[in-house]
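Usage

Read records sequentially. Each one opens with the input sequence:
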Amino acid sequence: MKEDLCIAHDKLAWVLYCDFICLDYDGNILDACTFALLAALKNVQLPKFTINEETGLAEVDLKQTNPLNIRKHPVATSFAVFDDTILIVDPTAEEEDLATGTVTIVMDEEGRLCSVHKPGGSGLTAAKLQDCITRAVTRHKEAKKLIDKVIKSIKPK
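and closes with the structure output:
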């Protein structure tokens, strides 16, 4: 929440910038970026700070840190659509080029729909869209296990 980034109410707050540089592209960039962003945010350690009573300035202690509290874990799942009959999860660049459309579904850990991104192309029936959402829920569970395992493996003991 935004309160987690607050240093001094109405005065100071942490600002986090996230830039992505794609070194190689073989499709499905939205999924990769949201996954990378979630992993990066789960790995953020904010330095401990205090407000100097005399100067009113923030003093930062880089040796003591607190993890950023991540309350929601959105995971994107992209699909290549072929004439509303075939869906391919996690499409390659070639599959995206050959597809008649694409759709990306973002779900949170409680199975709630966060976003649907459908940038044109062929339409989807309600049944196919529901199939995408169901698959996105399953993929979210798998991705969350994987990211938690990786984050746990890199945390200092």
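Summary fields computed downstream for this record:
- The CA atoms of residues 40 and 80 lie 27 Å apart.
- The chain has two domains: 2-67, 75-154.
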